Amino acid sequence: MTRQTWTAVVSALALIILAGVIALTPVPYVAWDPGVTDDVLGRSDNTDEITISGVETVGTTGSLLLTSVSVTSSDATLTLPSAFLNYLRDSRDVVPRDWAYPVGRSDSDLANDEAQKMSETEQSATVAALSAAGIAVQENPVVGSVSTGGPAYELLQTGDIIETVNDAAVSTSDDVNAVIRSLAVGATATFGIVRGGSSMVVPITTQASSTDRSVPRVGITMRPGYRYAPQVEFHIPDQVADESSGLVLSLAVYDKLRSEDLMGSRVIAGTGAIEANGTVGAVAGVAEKMRGAERDGAQIFLVPAANCSEVADIDTGMELVKVSKLSDAVSSLDSLALGATEAVPLC
To answer: Which residue has the higher pLDDT, 3 or 126?
Structure first.
C-alpha cells in the first residue's frame, strides 16, 4: 500500500472518529417543542380548575386554553446533530440551556422559584380580573422579609399587611418609605398591621442606615399586597402553568364573574404575563405555544403586543389578536363574537 493510500486511510479514520465524537458530544442547548394545552374553564380531578367563592359567578361556554412549551428535561442533553435538526423544524426551536436551567440552581431551587413566581402570577391575575369586573380591591404593602437583628426583628413578620405608619394610610411600599424617611434616626415608627386576620399596632425605633447614617431604616423589605372579598383558588396542572399563564388565568376569572358569556362557544387560547393593573407583558416560546393551541383546536390566539413581530410570518388559521391589556382581550373577543373584525387589533 502506498504512502498516499495510508494517508488517505488514516485521514478517513480520523474523520470518522471526529464525526462520531462531535455527534455524541452534548451541546449547551435545550429544545423547545409545542407543549400540552389545558382548558382552565374545565375540570381537573373532578374539581373546577378555577373556583370562586364569596361572590356570584356564572357558567361559561367554550374553552379557554392555557398553552405551554415542552422543554428538554434538566437531566437530558442535546447533541449537535439533534440540536441542528430541532432548529430546522418549524414547530420547534433551540435555545441556550441556561435560559431554562440557570447555572448554579438545583432542581429544588428551580421548583421553589417557579412556585413563588406562580403564586405572584395567580395574585396578579386575580387582582386584574376583579378590578375589571368592578369588584373592590384594597392595595396594601406586605412585609416580604425582616432583617435579622434589625429594628423590626421579632416585631414584624413576613406576611404582615401594613395599613398605616404613624397613623398615615399607606397603599404601597413607597408610601411606607416616605413616612420612614421623614423621621429622624432613633424616632418611633408606629405600624398599624393586620396579622392572621387580627389588627394590631407595632411601634419600631428606627436605626441609621449602614450606607448613610443620616437615613433612618426599620429593616424590612416589602411587596405589593391586595385585599378583596372573593376567594379565588387555582387548581391548574403543574406541567402547564407558569408565569406566562397570567393573561389566560385572569381572563378565565373575569369570564366567571361577568354576566355575559365571553367565550361564546369558541375555543380560545393565548399566552402572556400580567400585572395587577391588567398590563400584559411579553413571554418566550410564543410560536411553540401557538402550534400546540392550533393542534388542539383553537380558533383565536391572544398574543402579547410585544411578541407580535415574532409571529407575523407564521402560517396559521387562527386569528392572532394583539393584546396590551386585559381590557384589550375582552373588547376584542366581544368584537369578534359580533363579527366586527375591523375593530380588532391583529398581529
So the answer is: 126
